[in-house]
Every structure is written in structure tokens, then in C-alpha cells.
Amino acid sequence: MQIITMEPTGHSRYAITSSSTRGPTFLDAASELGFAANPDFNGAEQDGFGPFQVNVAAGRRISSAEAYLRPVANQPNLTIATNARATKIVLTGGRATGLKYLQNGTETEIGIRRELVLSSGTFESPKLLLLSGIGPADQLREFDIPVAVDLPGVGANLQDHPRMDVAFTNPAPLDVPPTSNILEAGGFLNTSSDPEGPDVQFHFATTLVNPALLDQGPGWELIVCATRPRSRGVVQLGSADPHDNARVRFNYLVEEYDRATVLRGVSVALELAATTSFASIRGTEVAPGSGIRDAMDLESVLRRSMDSEYHPVGTCKMGSDDSAVVDAQLRVRGVDGLRVADASVFPDITSGNTNAATVMVGREGFGLLARDEPLSSGQVPAAVDEDHLAGDVGRQR
């Protein structure tokens, strides 16, 4: 599968330059059912089936850290603290004036000259705000945390794309080269004539990726997710100890709309899998299971096996209403000198992968800082870097 990089709408991107022969199989199946081809999901139209654009250069996956942080890691006005855990934002007179973090068992406090930008992701950003006394007052008092700012929206509005898989074993030899991104192709489809656009996204995985299916041997999957779910969850403190994980409740499938949308997408995925294009690599159906086609049975499988698409967003919502945590400039309401710049600020989840939109938030956040007051040497605050505090870069496609 060779894909030539094109820029029909003026945006640049990396393209797959080496992959297996299975990506075209999926696209042939979509064509067989009469679905439109779309070589650019980020172009004028999202509907259709085509290859995913990916963050790859010279055959290597490129993370946001690789693209943005490592090139400037040796700048004299940047300090990167690794194996560190942020524990509290220090507030003085309604302003963020410091940050406490633990590193190798030692607590350090750094002062904030200008602004603190929190980019710990959809779970950890609200957790750190709560530990710092910024959030719903009742929850803070439950853990004897002094209330600095009663901000009810902190941790609320959690969203993710609910997912269900259609999967088969593969009787043919594996042909996935190491440079493949595995999720090589996909599609967006409107299964309900929704005027807002596609309500289902498909990912074609050239090998089994669902942990529950890995013992089935070689195979492939059609991953189905609802692009605009209506169910909302919450992130809350588990304790006042920063080492303890936050309590995360997604409330997946609470809304009937989400269940119905995923199941409509699964029906299409089963039709795709049954096409002649897949005949040569279609072995045993391992999900949802051979013979399971009744609507009630499929819903039962969905409830048992539904998985995350790893796109959590929304827990520090941007907006102007009472539930908003940050404003349009990413500034935390009620606190001076504090912004949030990660996927937690999304008011609504993107109707597709979250990675590019999350990177955009980071870039725009930097632009907001630069426009407010140009950065000069010595004004870049220290960056706390830990796996779970590194920001929500998502799974790159």
C-alpha cells in the first residue's frame, strides 16, 4: 500500500509510505458496498473511506514530545523535570504563584513569574486542580481540602468514543511490516441521516489489537465507534493524596443514542466483513461471535465487551457558562496566571480522532501566551514531565 502525500486543501501531513497489503482490502470492501472513497478525512468532506494520515517521518512514529519538546530540550531557559509528580498549584491572593512537585521522594516548590500552563491530560489536569482547592466545593470539603475557588465544572463533562469490535482470525500469513501503523485505513459514515455529519467511525486494524482477542492468533479487526456520543462521565478525587489515582466514571452507553449508533455501525462492519474482498483472509469470527446477529444479542455483547477508543476529553471544559472551567483564552476561571492546555478543555469531543485537535490546543495555547506578552529568556517555567502528566497526545493514526 503506497500512499503519495497530497495537499488538496492546503494542510500538510505525513502519509503512510510502507504498509501491508490489507489496507486496500478494506477499501475494496467499502467500494464493493458502494461507499464513497475519501483520500483526505481532514479535507473538505469527512464522509467516506480511505487511508489514515499519520505522524510518521523516515519510517518512525513522531510523538508530540518528539516534534516539539526534544528539539528545544537544551534551551537554557527550559528545565525538564523527569520522574516527577505535580502535587499542588500554590495560590496567593487568587493567583497561581507556584507549583509543588515530588521528585525522587523530595518535594520541590518552584515560583511562577508569569503564568502556569497545566497540560496533564483529561484525568490528571482536573485532579491537580482539585488537589489545589479549585473545583466543586462539596467534593473538596469531603477530603478536607480548603476551597480556593468553587468551580463546579472541574472533572465534569468527561467524554470518550465508545467502541465495539468486529474481528476475524486470518488463515493467510501475516504481512504487516514494522513501519505499518496497524490502523492503516478507516472510514466515516452517517448511519442516521444526521445533518451534523458522520455519526460512526471505522478503523481497520491489520492485526488483532483488542487485548481480549490476542489469544485467538493472527487476525484482523474492524473497530466501530460513535463519533458524537451523548453520555457524560466525571473525574473525581479518590483521596487527598496526590499519589492516589483519580476516580474515573465514564458512564458509557447511558444514553440510548450511543448504544443505537454503535450497533448501527456494527451492522455495517459485519456487511463489510462479509464482502468478497475479505474472502481470502476471513477466518473464524471471534467478535461479536459467529451467528450473533439478533439486535438484542448484539446489544448484550456491546454491554459486555464495549471498550474505550482512548479519546477521553472534556473535564476542564472551555466556555462561558457556569459549567465552564476555562475561558476562550484557556484561562482558569477565578484564578489569575493559570491556564489549561490539553484535551480536557474540549467542550465537546471531536467527531474523529483527538490527537490533531489536542496538538492544536497546545499550539494555540502557546500563541495566546506569546500574544499576551512576548516570551523572553528566563520566562519559560519549568516543565514537569511524567508518563501520566505528559499531556493527552492520543493514539496517532
Brief rundown of the structure:
This protein is 20% helix and 22% strand. By secondary structure, it is an alpha+beta fold.
Would you write up a description of this structure?
The chain has helices spanning 22-32, 64-69, 121-131, 137-142, 256-273, 295-305, 355-372; strands at residues 48-51, 56-57, 60-61, 80-82, 84-92, 95-103, 106-111, 116-118, 134-135, 149-150, 162-169, 183-189, 200-205, 219-226, 234-236, 247-249, 285-287, 307-308, 338-340, 383-385. The protein is an alpha+beta fold and 397 residues long. It folds into 2 domains: 22-51 and 161-228 and 266-308, Cholesterol Oxidase, domain 2 (2-Layer Sandwich); 76-158 and 312-389, FAD/NAD(P)-binding domain, CATH 3.50.50.60. Strands 1, 11, 12, 13, 14, 17 and 18 form a 7-stranded antiparallel sheet that branches. Strands 5-6-7 form a 3-stranded antiparallel sheet. A two-stranded antiparallel sheet has the order 2-3. Strand 5 and strand 6 form a beta hairpin. The longest helix is centred in the middle third of the chain and has 18 residues, at 256-273. The two termini are 15 Å apart.
